[in-house]
Design a protein that fits this description.
This protein is an all-alpha fold. It has one domain (3-123). The chain has five helices and no strands. The protein has helices at 3-25, 35-59, 71-85, 87-90, 94-123. Helix 1 runs antiparallel to helix 2 and helix 3 packs antiparallel against helix 5 (94-123). It is flat. 15% of the residues are buried.
């Protein structure tokens, strides 16, 4: 196993851990009840999975079809997250904002689950 691709993965994971640590350290406990904090934490987790996907595709450049993220779910999550971050511009109430946040987090979670499942499926192939 080459050393360089593993180094990229470890550095990327370390940077994402630092991002999560900074969010947790410099945020008050009451702020975690806001929709913005929930969306930010979900986006950091999704970024971790997408970074791992990109690094894995770089390492497996010899494959005919690289793994791809589910674009529709990611776009839906981004649209719902942006709508939840700017509720006054859309004139929506707090319950609708909570529903948009839940939809964004669920779409990011499903997208990440599909990607991680495809990692397992492709890693069990006999060589």
């Amino acid at each position: 196993m080459p050393v360089v691709p593993r180094r990229k993965t470890v550095l990327g994971a370390g940077l994402l851990c630092v991002a999560l640590i900074l969010v947790v350290l410099f945020t008050t406990p009451t702020a975690f009840r806001s929709p913005t904090a929930v969306v930010v934490m979900a986006l950091i987790g999704t970024a971790a999975v997408l970074l791992q996907l990109r690094l894995r595709n770089e390492n497996d450049a010899h494959e005919k079809q690289p793994l791809r993220p589910p674009l529709g779910l990611n776009v839906l999550g981004i649209v719902l997250a942006l709508a939840a971050l700017f509720p006054s511009a859309l004139h929506v109430g707090p319950r609708a904002v909570q529903a948009m946040v839940l939809g964004a987090v669920c779409s990011f979670a499903l997208s990440s689950a599909f990607i991680l499942h495809s990692f397992r499926k492709h890693s069990t192939k006999p060589e």
